[in-house]
Design a protein that fits this description.
It contains 5 helices and 9 strands; from the N terminus they run E-E-H-E-H-H-E-E-E-H-E-H-E-E. The protein is an alpha+beta fold and 173 residues long. Bound molecules: coenzyme A.
């Protein structure tokens, strides 16, 4: 008996392909728009003990900033906000929805903003991260960021203040 074919593929190939298309989540990076702010704020409020306000995000929709979002199957999974000053990029915010963590979204955003900074001929990316934030620090180190200093009492904390680790990545010319 002849095998069923769809557009030159066997039925089993076609089923296999469509199954993998359904099970593999599709991640897409794109610039954030102001219309994303309700979803951004929902993630932000779950991500930080001292979250940004919507007004802070609104102030970042300016030429010296880049705002990136990752959609998983059309739902905003995370975002990154960076500022560009002279030859230096400052990573201001990187946050992934708790339900989407541990699946590569944060690393994807980080790699994307590094690639964009290189494409725009920037020399360095710097960031601050709470000393207690081991997950983020590990992610940054694994992408080549190195600690270059500390800022004392940089972050508000439940009991007073917390120091920041300052990390930097030199970009290749
Ligand atoms: C930090 C954050 C952005 C990471 O996003 P994510 O999408 O979960 O990260 P990824 O899935 O890309 O994982 C990247 C790396 O982070 C580290 N990591 C992620 N989740 C971890 C966990 N639960 N425990 C330990 N390390 C973890 C690992 O090094 C991981 O790499 P690996 O999977 O190869 O081991 C996310 O945890 C977050 O939004 N946290 C709250 C906001 C925040 O702290 N932002 C950083 C401010 S400086």
């Amino acid at each position: 008996m002849a095998k069923a074919e769809i557009g030159g593929q066997s039925m089993m190939q076609a089923i296999g392909d469509s199954c993998s298309a359904v099970s593999e989540p599709e991640l897409e990076i794109r610039p954030l728009e102001s219309g994303d702010l309700p979803e951004v704020m929902n993630i932000e409020l779950q991500g930080y003990s001292h979250p940004w306000t919507e007004g802070i995000f609104q102030d970042c929709f300016k030429p010296g900033y880049r705002l990136w979002g990752v959609d998983e199957d059309g739902v905003l999974a995370g975002y990154a906000v960076v500022s560009y000053v002279l030859d230096e990029v400052h990573l201001l915010n990187l946050c992934v929805h708790p339900g989407f963590r541990g699946r590569g979204v944060g690393r994807l955003l980080l790699r994307h903003l590094v690639k964009e900074a290189s494409r725009e001929d920037m020399n360095q990316i710097i960031l601050e991260v709470r000393l207690s934030n081991n997950i983020a620090s590990k992610l940054y180190r694994s992408e080549g960021f190195e600690e270059i200093g500390r800022r004392r009492r940089y972050y508000p904390a439940a009991s007073g203040w917390e120091d920041a680790r300052v990390m930097a990545l030199l970009l290749q010319p």
